[in-house]
Amino acid sequence: xxxTVANYVAGTVASIGRDELLTAADHNLADTLRLxxxxxxxxxxxxxxxxxxxSTLASWPGPYHNGAFRLDRSMAPAEVLARAATFFxxxxxxxxxxxxxxxxxxxxxxxxxxxxAAVSASGTPRxxxxxxxxxxxxxPGVTLDEVVDDAGRRAYLAVxxxxxxxxxxxPDAAEASLATVTAVHGxxxxxxVARLGGAPVAAAMAVTSDGGVRGGGAGPRxxxxxxxxxxxxxxxxxxxxxxxxxxxxxxxxxxxxxxVLEASxxxxxxxxxxxxxxxxxxxxxxxxxPPPGDRSAHQPAPT
Length: 303
Hints:
Layout: E1 4-9, E2 12-17, H1 18-39, E3 44-47, E4 51-55, E5 66-70, H2 77-88, E6 95-100, H3 105-113, E7 117-118, E8 124-129, E9 142-146, H4 150-163, H5 171-177, E10 189-196, E11 199-210, E12 221-230, H6 239-253, E13 258-262, H7 268-274, E14 277-287
Parallel strand pairs: 5-6, 12-13
Antiparallel strand pairs: 1-2, 3-4, 4-5, 6-14, 7-14, 8-13, 8-14, 9-10, 10-11, 11-12
Helix pairs in contact: 2-3
């Protein structure tokens, strides 16, 4: 019998098969990469629905900025790697091939055998939430402002740059992802900034999509939480959770049957306390492969 997870909303139960959920979540992640590809200045995208290749920034080889994501799992690994090598040649110092633990064992095996480097052994957890949680309640002195204009976008960008300064996202990469209002406000995209005493200190966004096939509604509607951050001086006040709860509510308000995210090491305990559960993991293989006989200097991209 196919395993299912139950979504309890307003006293009703709607079951989602695990495979259905994972497929829809994969397509939501692809839609997020497409969003960055549409809104980052100078970005280049190749997308036939089966393989998504996105390059948003020439200087940063991380998976969200220079990544290859296979959606058609019947596509041979050799074709994926060959097309990725051609697409990224001369475009960035490196790139990442996304590996979904639930579907890409063959692709990972082929990439590693071909000289790609494993970025991490464990990867990042794919977490899912299939029911509403308590809505955000801002404490005194804190406001939650939805991003609807360029001033809001700049506030979100300022939070993100400061929040990730000691992590994996350099300022130019943050600027590429949040370059225009349409990256944080528009069809399927909502974002929020928390302000403490009027100053922006935390942020989160939700990207909602219909899972299953590109441009269609064949799968369950899913919302993905992205770019959650809190500036160091405001940490320990629950503001990241506050913004995440806002984004979760936004996703369910837009008809999502599940909310998903890729958890960082720092954020993972928080999300699990909120009710998210692990359903899979993503890893990455870093390329291009070094020349034959010269693999000692091949370093994986930070994540």
